[in-house]
Amino acid sequence: MSLRKRLALLIGIDSLIVMFSVFVGNWLIAPAAEIVTPALVITSIGLLVSHHIFAHFFKLYKRVWQYASIRELSSIFLAVTLSVATVGVLQLALYQVIYSRTLLITLMLHILLIGASRFSWRLYRDMKFKSAANKKRALIIGAGNGGTMVARQLLNSEMSELHPVAFIDDDMTKAGLEIMGVPVIGKKENIPTVVSDKNIQHIIIAIPSLSKSDLNELFQICSKTKVKTQIMPSVEDIMSGRVSVTQMRDVQVEDLLGREPVELNTVKIGENITGKTVLVTGAGGSIGSEVCRQVSRYSPDKIILLGHGENSIYTIEMELRTKFTDLNMDIITEIANVQDKSRILDIFKAHAPDVVYHAAAHKHVPLMEKNPHEAVKNNVIGTKNCAEAADETGVASFVMISTDKAVNPTSVMGATKRIAEMIVQNMGHKSATKFVAVRFGNVLGSRGSVIPLFKQQIASGGPVTVTHPDMTRYFMTVPEASRLVLQAGSLAEGGEVFVLDMGEPVKIVDLAKNLIQLSGFSEHEITIKYSGVRPGEKLFEELMSKDEIHNQQIFPMIYRGKTPPINIQVVTELISTFEKHEEDYLRKEILDIAHFRITALQNISAVK
Questions:
Q1: Cβ contacts of 68 within 8 Å, gap of 6 or more
Q2: Which residues contact 269 (CB under 8 A, 6 or more apart)?
Q3: How far is CA 75 from the centre of its chain?
Q4: Picking from 35-39, 62-66, 406-410, 513-517, which range would have the lowest pLDDT averaged per residue?
């Protein structure tokens, strides 16, 4: 129906209701009196005119009544009350009397009939869609604002495949009540029973304020039912119009990490990046590319994407050019190897960066055990080249991204990253550039992480391979790690090793079990197989050694590790020896080389 036809229909209905209310009200008070009197005619005309004026003022003709709620009912009450009050004033002015009883009955009839005319369409739609028998029976967890919003949309949507049949909520004051005809019938402990008794086919978690640890607990309860479990979109996404309430999403592994988001000091980060020239090494990698995305949000004047792989650098360049078209930001790509000292120095001289984020590194533990010389060349010599270039060209701050495997390392990768940390720490003590290392654990979704491997194995029908039942790791998401890297860089004074709070360590086998459940399978369908600890791996990772522990946070989720004394001469001699005799090392047995690297590192760490 067009707007003009709809307006004409509503005005016509309201006019009939007004006239009916006036005449019936008058007849109920004085049934034997004359039906039509001058006073009644004046009252009718006055009420008709005033009703349309106030109806227009309160937009009763522009509301979508299929979604009518208390707000719309309030508007009807105000419009009708004010129009009747206006007629009362008119009667007093013309006849020096107010026919109060007649007006009171007229008011009640007026409100009742206007309300009924408006809400009847919503009642019709609710009854129509509630009776849909071909929809899946849904259980909504959370009877608050989020759950109510989800239930309303499911009940009012013809396209939805879900029909809400019950709420679960721990608030005992809501137990036994109904929301839009949907009963609240239990607490979270009752979920398995409710699913069985009500023949539930779908579970929706609709508590936007739920902490991740509580979400994890809730998901574990829901997973026992074998019923598909999803969560409602965030309120921000709904309000911004990016998604609708009915667009549920699957629970992700990231949702079950038990970590809460931290508020960043955007002003401090902006001071370090906005309007500056920022260079990111390893810009095509998982961490490096996310650092580029986060940096771009703070409007640098120029961002240099430095990497060895042309495809990955091209990919992140195109993404930034697409996403940040509204920013006046130069995006420059440089294909270079951090092992090439002269090339790196030329790039630093050409662009004179203010801030450098050094993410270029080899990170795969078993591969580096087989190729230790490449770990040394990339992680140690590459870091040294970039750090020295930053010092020589007057870079303001240099942030190296490190790993928890650098703590008491048992692998070549961890050993080389610890040596790289030492190089950065030493540069921080003697250079005008603020050098800092940021250390954190495993990153979900990064290249080489277990999540893509587990997903591939599940898609192939299993088994999912876990190295050891007691293997634990610290985890955080790529965006979270990258944001905290920017925050730590803005706090740098020079020479620090910042350690990100990774929360509680997670058993890899638990991660595998969660991913199997999230994929809609049971452990009987997708089995878990233990493959044994790989070379260089530890069962448990540490974020700080006992000599580095500093209890005080300098920022939420960021700690400053103590920096024990190091003998940089040993590091320098190690690098010099490697560069001088690299060909000899390449001809040696791999295990002997790996042993030499770790032994050398232990000698360095022992120097006080």
A1: 118, 119, 121, 122
A2: 298, 486, 487, 489, 490
A3: 38
A4: 62-66
In a domain, 574, yes or no: yes
Which of 170, 225, 184, 217 has the alpha carbon at shortest distance from 201? Answer: 225
Contact (CB, 8 A) for 323 and 296: yes
- Contacts for 24-31: CB closer than 8 Å, 24+ residues apart: 24/105, 24/109, 25/102, 25/103, 25/104, 25/105, 25/106, 25/109, 26/102, 26/106, 28/105, 29/99, 29/101, 29/102, 29/105
- What tens digit of pLDDT does each residue of 59-76 get? 777 776 665 667 777 888
Q: Residue 532: helix, strand or coil by DSSP?
A: coil
Q: Return the bridge partners of 250, or none.
A: 230
Nearest to 233 by CA among 246, 220, 214: 246
Residue identified by tokens 């010389």 is 373
What crossing angle do the helices spanning 3-29 and 38-57 adopt, rounded to 10°?
Answer: 140
Range of the domain at 281: 266-443+475-502+542-606
Q: Between the CA of residue 592 and those of 8, 107, 536, 596, 599, what are the distances in Å?
A: 91, 96, 13, 6, 10
Measure the CA–CA gap between 343 and 386, rounded to whole angstroms: 10
**How far is Cα 450 from Cα 471, in angstroms, rounded to an integer?**
12
- Residue 21 tokens read as 């209310």
How many angstroms from the chain centroid is the CA of residue 421? 31
If one counts the domains in the chain, the total is 3
* Active-site residue list: 405
Domain for residue 596, yes or no?
yes
1-37 tens-digit pLDDT: 577 787 888 888 888 888 888 888 778 877 656 666 7
How far, in Å, CA of 203 to CA of 232, rounded? Answer: 10
Strand order in the sheet with 136-141: 162-168, 136-141, 202-205, 229-231, 249-250
The overall pTM is greater than 0.70: no
89 and 67 belong to one structural domain: yes
Closest alpha carbon to 140 in 222, 212, 216: 222
Pairwise CA distance, residues 247 & 470, whole Å = 38
- Clarify whether residues 351 and 439 are in a common domain: yes
- List Cα–Cα distances, 185 to 16, 191, 366, 388, 451, in angstroms: 44, 10, 52, 66, 37
- Tell me the backbone φ, ψ of residue 403, rounded to 5 degrees: -145, 155
| pLDDT score, position 166 | 92
User: Which residue is associated with the tokens 């009420």?
Assistant: 47
Based on the fold, state whether residues 409 and 547 are members of the same structural domain.
Answer: yes
Distance of CA 193 to the CA centre of its chain: 31
